Hints:
The chain is mostly helical. It is built from 6 helices and no strands. The protein has helices at 5-28, 33-65, 70-91, 100-146, 153-156, 158-167. It is elongated, with a radius of gyration of 16 Å.
Amino acid sequence: MSNDAIVLLREDHKEVRRLFREYRGLADGDGDDGARRRTVQRIVEELTVHTYLEDELVYPRIRQELPGMAEEMDRAEQEHHVADLLCEELSRMSPDDDGYDAKTAVLIDSVERHIEHEEEDWFPKVRAALGRTELRELGERMQAVRETAPRHPTAGGMLHRIADALEG
């Protein structure tokens, strides 16, 4: 696999989309609640790691190299915040809870729009601005941080980061 940051992000997107399809297949049929819950938990984990990597490594780099994209980065961070909230709520729910499927559908819809915007609009700009060597270095850093990245939304949320900053 490539160390290119954009390639790694696209691979994450591909896995998340696969999990979305898996969930839809389970939700549309008579899929058992255990399988739906496991799939949602995998979605929560994948999104938590991915948004953490973007928020901590990728977006700051984009802000540095492409200051004209600051407003887009602000919006993306808010989209991540909403996804984190939904993921946190879903992680405490079970498939038989009221709103479970609706909440999951809202999460999927918003993340799919976010992914589409990143891949179609941002990635070409970022590739042009950073270049091959910088994207490879950023990708290597992402792979190293991925190992210790939070797997649960509250572990990597803003309050956690503030607490870490105050302790440090």
